[in-house]
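Try this one yourself first.
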């Protein structure tokens, strides 16, 4: 696991992780959709982290 060197993928991944965490906590999505939040965090991590 290594951070990607593509800045765009890195930014998108970080944004997805942040949005996912916020939605789990219940700030960005009203009511806090935990499942969507977890999926967003996982997707963000997969985008930002490249498997070697």
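Now uncover the answer:
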């Amino acid at each position: 696991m290594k951070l990607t060197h593509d800045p765009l993928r890195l930014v998108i991944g970080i944004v997805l992780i942040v949005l996912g965490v916020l939605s789990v906590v219940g700030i960005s999505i009203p009511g806090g959709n935990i499942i969507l939040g977890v999926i967003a965090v996982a997707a963000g991590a997969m985008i930002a982290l490249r498997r070697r």
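Discussion: The chain is about 65% helix and 10% strand. The longest helix spans residues 7-25.
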